[in-house]
Write a structure and sequence with these properties.
Number of strands: 2
Radius of gyration: 14 Å
Distance between the termini: 19 Å
Largest sheet: 2 strands, antiparallel
């Protein structure tokens, strides 16, 4: 089984992109970051299988994966 990231969103914390900038040692475009700092998915075509996997990883590194029908 493989998990391929198609959409990634970063939520929580007041200014999480600052931590990302420090971790990457690079400048992060704040307007680009705003597109990822949300809890609503961008539209996508449903896969032929009729299922998607949703993985949530919190700031401690704990993760949960759930497969749901679409």
């Amino acid at each position: 089984m493989s998990f391929f990231v198609r959409h990634a969103y970063f939520t929580g914390n007041e200014r999480p992109y600052e931590k990302l900038q420090r971790a990457l040692r690079a400048e992060v475009d704040e307007s680009a970051w705003e597109a990822l700092y949300q809890t609503t998915s961008r539209p996508f075509d449903p896969p032929a299988t009729g299922k998607i996997a949703v993985k949530v990883i919190n700031h401690y590194g704990d993760e949960v994966l759930k497969v749901v029908g679409v």
